[in-house]
Write a structure and sequence with these properties.
Blueprint (H helix, E strand, L loop, with lengths): L1 E6 L5 H13 L4 E2 L1 H4 L6 H11 E8 L1 H5 L3 H11 L8 E5 L15 E2 L5 H11 L34 E2 L13 H12 L7 E5 L6 H11 L6 E6 L3 H9 L1 H4 L10 H14 L3 E6 L4 H4 L10 E6 L9 E4 L5 H12 L4 H10 L4 H14 L3 H18 L8 H17 L1 H10 L7 E2 L1 H5 L6 H8 L1 H13 L4 E2 L3 E3 L2 H9 L3 H18 L10 H21 L3 H17 L3 H19 L4 H16 L3 H19 L4 H16 L3 H19 L4 H16 L3 H19 L4 H16 L3 H19 L4 H11 L3
Parallel strand pairs: 1-2, 1-3, 3-4, 4-5, 6-8, 7-10, 7-11, 8-9, 9-10
Antiparallel strand pairs: 12-14, 13-14
Helix pairs in contact: 9-11, 13-14, 13-15, 14-16, 15-17, 16-17, 17-18, 18-21, 20-21, 23-24, 23-25, 24-25, 25-26, 26-27, 27-28, 28-29, 29-30, 30-31, 31-32, 32-33, 33-34, 34-35
């Protein structure tokens, strides 16, 4: 008897073959039409024999499978044998979104839709087990699932226990009653299609302010409110994953950020009373994978992009109604002349950002609305005569900015320069400490400010009073349109000056060892500013050394978080800058090339990785000679790609060479030597030399234990590898001890869902 007969439609052949391969690799036997039905055989008889001679039938579910006539008898035969499902004879595996009807509808299926290969592999192998799926450790208590009778209710108006909204409530918020009512009614309706609302509109119409006001007005409805900066994919992923730490989830410290994101999404799908705000999202593709399924919480998206249909209900936000504009100006300034307020609102185009800057000026200077209207008209004509209007922002914003900036310049040149610097960073949460870390790269007007809290307060105060920035004790935030106007008002030399200062201070602050998990909180906080500063520096062609280095270190961080596509982009940009700056054969270029090879390997592009590693090796050999430690790293990396490509003899030569260089450089018991020893053990195992592999793994384990202690994740890698070779040698008890030890270490440090933990668990399961 075979273990499984796999029933599928020809449209899903690739899924069927992947399923069969995965099962057989795990030790099961399968019957698959594509592999087992030979030319000339009777198809109907073969199907009958396969269905009757297999203990269980797997049905690969998709719309094509459910709509095909000939697949029905295949799963029906299994259903008849086990109509109650007690034996698990019929096991549906859902690979595409489809609705199950009739006899199939009550049967629990294995769901592989939207999973990556690692997660799908785990879901399939877990799903076929005919045993209770009780986890090995006690699950965390579901926060928010039920309030303890002794827990004190939250004070009305108090913020939720999990909250990261970066902006204070706007005390001058006016109007928008219809929009706020629509949001409230839609999100409260319980209808799945209405639980995600996309607030769309042009820049400056108040999208973020509307989301912010909804959040504060309805704060009592939520136990979790999480704000996600969504302009860049990498920043979106980091902010979303950071919710795990706020919720104290077991996965919060996992190295693989994708695992953290998956865990956060699952938590949200299982808990009520939460609100997610994806602020300034550029595209639905950025956000779609982060949206929880089900009806447990609410989502707001703010975006200039109108294309959200299919995943969100669109709320198109326009400029303020005239009455709302007039009410805002009167409330903001304390004046009562509705007629002149109407005229100014008309001149400002009823745009909330322009109205706020005008109101801030009048409040700060004690001027009335008529005075500001006259001044606005003069400045607007001056600006129109001076430059072609920008398409990035309305001329009303440019004019109100010009009026405010003139005042700032008269009060504090340091304040004006601080705004110039912030214009070349990301708009939100600019750390004040950046100034201190990179003070040597700042112009003289800011060096005194950076080291003196009182001087800093004097510089930032006029920016705050004229609504050019939002300031907290630790951060500065600037509206994107204010940044755009600020940059446009600089001449080319000034743009280069401030772009260079921005990229150098971020490069100075960004951790060099960004692959170390201990540096990741700092990396995450600086990531949006690294991306923004590097982009401006690239466009203006300044500070190429700092820009290339910053992009490379950002790539190292993103690769460590398993954000491989984003890391690849960083490395490619760093490489292009390095080649233009140093030439194609510089050792700095070799670093970028080598790192690009690593991420290509992680993405499965082995041929591309091989070319990169060969190029890095050639550069370093020419620069350092054949026996340098940097050359050994290149050689070892090349060995890894040759092994992945199936060239075991070539890989063996590379690993032996790297080991020889490492021993000559560091001695026999160095951690770098342990890496080469471990790699050599792997290729010896692949070549069938189990005794040789065993010696290598034992040596690597001894070095690791002496360096890190017995319970470090690096040690667990060698322990697992040693288990594999003991299993191949027939020492099942020895293998079991190794797997159990490695599993204990990985579970403690990485969590149950980490790929390394899952791999060891599967290795242990294979012994039974």
């Amino acid at each position: 008897m075979k273990d499984f007969f796999i029933s599928y439609n020809s449209a899903d052949k690739s899924w069927a073959e992947w399923t069969a391969w995965t099962l057989e690799e795990a030790g099961y036997t399968t019957v698959l039409q594509a592999w087992d039905f030979r030319p000339g055989s009777n198809f109907v008889l073969e199907m009958q024999r396969a269905a009757s001679e297999a203990e269980r039938t797997i049905a690969i579910l998709s719309p094509a499978y459910l709509n095909a006539n000939y697949t029905q008898p295949e799963w029906a035969a299994a259903f008849v044998q086990d109509p109650t499902g007690e034996k698990g004879t019929l096991l549906p595996v859902r690979v595409q979104k489809c609705d199950l009807e009739g006899l199939l509808s009550p049967i629990t299926y294995i769901n592989l839709v939207d999973l990556d290969e690692t997660a799908a592999d785990e879901a399939l192998l877990q799903g076929i087990k005919q045993e209770r799926m009780k986890p090995p450790v006690k699950p965390a208590f579901p926060k928010g699932a039920q309030r303890s009778v002794t827990e004190q209710p939250r004070f009305p108006g108090a913020l939720p226990p999990t909250w990261n909204v970066p902006h204070s409530r706007n005390p001058n918020f006016t109007g928008r009653k219809e929009y706020l009512a629509n949001l409230k009614n839609s999100l409260s309706s319980g209808k799945p299609a209405a639980l995600t609302q996309a607030i769309h509109g042009l820049g400056g119409v108040g999208k973020t302010q509307l989301a912010l006001e909804y959040t504060y007005r309805n704060v009592a409805e939520y136990d979790v409110v999480w704000w996600v900066r969504s302009e860049e994919p990498a920043t979106l992923a980091a902010d979303y994953a950071s919710l795990a730490k706020a919720l104290d989830m077991p996965e919060k410290e996992a190295a693989d950020q994708l695992l953290i994101i998956k865990a956060v999404k699952q938590w949200l799908e299982q808990h009520p009373k939460w609100l997610l705000v994806f602020d300034n999202a550029k595209d639905r593709a950025y956000v779609n994978d982060y949206l929880p399924q089900g009806k447990t919480g609410h989502v707001l998206i703010t975006s200039r992009n109108v294309n959200w249909r299919g995943i969100a209900t669109l709320l198109d936000v326009k400029v303020l109604e005239r009455k709302e504009s007039v009410d805002f100006l009167l409330k903001r300034t304390g004046y009562t002349d509705k007629e002149v307020a109407d005229a100014l609102a008309d001149a400002l185009g009823d745009l909330p950002l322009a109205l706020e800057q005008a109101g801030a000026y009048m409040e700060a200077k004690g001027r009335n609305i008529s005075y500001y209207l006259n001044m606005f008209t003069v400045h607007k004509n001056k600006l129109l005569n001076r430059a072609v209007p920008s398409t990035d922002y309305p001329d009303t914003v440019a004019t109100t900015w010009d009026i405010a900036f003139d005042e700032v310049m008269q009060i504090s040149s340091s304040g004006a320069d601080l705004l110039n610097l912030c214009a070349f960073l990301a708009p939100d949460d600019i750390p004040v400490e950046l100034l201190n870390s990179g003070v040597q790269y700042l112009p003289e007007s800011l060096t005194a400010v950076a080291g003196d809290p009182l001087a800093f307060d004097d510089a930032v105060d006029p920016l705050r009073r004229y609504s050019l920035v939002e300031i907290t004790a630790e951060t500065i935030s600037v509206h994107r349109l204010v940044q755009a106007v600020t940059r446009d008002r600089l001449d080319e030399d000034e743009k280069k000056k401030w772009a260079e200062a921005a990229v150098r201070i971020v490069d100075e602050a960004f951790p060099f060892d960004s692959d170390d998990v201990g540096t990741w909180p700092v990396c995450s906080r600086l990531l949006p500013h690294a991306l923004a500063a590097a982009e401006h520096a690239e466009v203006l062609n300044v500070a190429s050394d700092s820009t290339g280095r910053l992009l490379n270190q950002t790539g190292v961080y993103l690769k460590g978080r398993a954000q491989f596509a984003e890391a690849k982009e960083m490395y490619e940009r760093a490489l292009a800058i390095g080649e233009a700056t140093y030439g194609p054969d510089h050792t700095q270029v070799a670093i970028y090339v080598n790192n690009l090879g690593g991420v290509l390997k992680a993405l499965g592009d082995m041929e591309g990785a091989k070319k990169m590693y060969e190029r890095a090796l050639a550069i370093d050999e020419a620069a350092y000679g054949p026996d340098h430690p940097d050359v050994a790293i290149d050689v070892s990396n090349l060995g890894g790609v040759l092994k992945a490509l199936g060239d075991m003899e070539g890989a063996k030569k590379m690993y032996e060479r790297a080991l020889a260089i490492g021993e000559a450089t560091y001695g026999p018991n160095h951690t770098q030597v342990a890496i080469y020893v471990n790699n050599l053990g792997g290729v010896l195992k692949a070549l069938g030399d189990m005794e040789g592999a065993k010696k290598m793994y034992e040596r690597a384990l001894a070095i690791g234990e002496a360096t890190y202690g017995p319970d470090h994740p690096t040690v667990a890698i060698s322990v697992n590898n040693l288990g594999l070779v003991l299993q191949a040698l027939g020492d099942m008890e020895g293998a079991k001890k190794m797997y159990e030890r490695a599993l204990s270490i990985f579970t403690e440090y990485l969590g149950e869902d980490h790929p390394k933990t899952v791999t060891v668990q599967n290795n242990l399961d294979s012994l039974s």
